[in-house]
Amino acid sequence: MKILILSCSTGGGHNSCAKYIAEEFNKYGIHADVEDYMLLVGDKASSRAEKLYLGSTKGNGNIFKTVYKLGELYNKTGIKSPVYGFNKMVVKKLDKFLLDNKDIQCIYYIYGGSIMQAVVQKWGNSLGFRIPSLWAKDNNVKNGSKIEVIAEKGKMVILPQKKTLDDMLAMVTSENIHSEISTGNSVGNEEW
User: Residue 12: CB partners within 8 Å, gap ≥ 6?
Assistant: First the structure.
C-alpha cells in the first residue's frame, strides 16, 4: 500500500503533522509520502500562502483571528467558501497527479485546524481546556456531549464517544422509520 499525505505549507504546523503521520505509517512498513498540495497550483503558490498566513499571525494575531471568525460566519451561510472555490480550481491538477501516480491507494489531507492549541485552565480542583469549535463541529460534539479521553505515552487523545444502541434508537421517529425489509426465505434454522 502507498499512502499520499497532502499538506499545506502555511507556517509549518501542517507539514509537521503530515511528517509525523508519514513516520507512523512508515514505522509499520506502509509507504507514505508527504507532498505540498499548494505545489499543484504552482511553484510560488506555497511560499505566497506561507507569507500570507505568517503575516496574518504577527503581533497578537488579530488579522488571523478576524479572518478565522469571518470564515466561521461565512460557513454558517451555506454558501461555498473561497477556500472551497480554490480547491475546486486545483482538482484537475490533482486528478492528473493521481493518474500519474496510480499506485497511491489512500490520501490524507492535512487541513487547517488539524493541529490546534488550547490553554489549560484551572476548573475547580481540576484542569481543563476548551475544545476548538471547528473540531467540535466536524465531530458533532455539542455542549453536554460525552467524549472519550485516552492517555497514552505522554499524549492525550480525545475522541467523540460512539453512540450507544439506545442513543441511536432515540433518534428514530415516526417520520424517519422505514417499513419491514424482506430478506428472503429462511435458509437455516431461523424462526421468523
Answer: none
Nearest to 107 by CA among 21, 25, 3: 3
Strands 147-152 and 126-128 turn out to be unpaired
pTM above 0.70, yes or no: no
Q: Where are the alpha helices (DSSP H) in the chain?
A: 13-27, 45-56, 62-76, 82-100, 133-138, 165-170
Q: Cα–Cα distance between 20 and 4 in angstroms, integer?
A: 13
30 to 97, 102, 104, 110, 162: CA distances (angstroms): 20, 16, 11, 18, 28
Cell of 89: 480550481
Beta carbons of 31 and 104 less than 8 angstroms apart:
no
Grid cell of 160 as nine digits: 467523540
Residue 39, C-beta contacts closer than 8 angstroms, at least 6 positions apart: 45, 46
Tens-digit pLDDT string for the chain (192 aa): 678 888 877 766 777 878 888 888 888 888 888 888 788 888 788 888 778 877 877 777 778 778 777 877 777 787 777 777 777 777 778 778 777 876 776 665 555 544 455 667 788 888 887 777 767 777 778 888 888 888 877 777 788 777 778 877 888 888 888 888 777 777 777 765
